[in-house]
Amino acid sequence: xxxxxxxxxxxxxxxxxxxxxxxxxxxxxxxxxxxxxxxxxxxxxxxxxxxxxxxxxxxxxxxxxxxxxxxxxxxxxxxxxxxxxxxxxxxxxxxxxxxxxxxxxxxxxxxxxxxxxxxxxxxxxxxxxxxxxx
Length: 134
Known about the structure:
Oligomer: single chain
């Protein structure tokens, strides 16, 4: 088998095994048993094929990267919207909490007044009972 045929077979094998990976000239050369400079000097068409493969892989990675970036942008937008909604809900809850704290303070004051009045009434009742029992 001619060296060029072995190089093409090796390139096809590597592309089949790792279609998403870039190919190094030295790996193809080593797979066939020649030096990488032999590929550059005697088989420039192989270098062109390897570069073409690597360009396709790079483009795929770039498109994949762009898709990931687009997805992250969508996720970021969704999170901002969710954050805004939660912030609004928190503000409403804080307002409701403040209202209940105020009501609680007012009720606590009323209870204190009622207890004072109750104690005063008990004292008056006690005085009245003592006065009648004399």
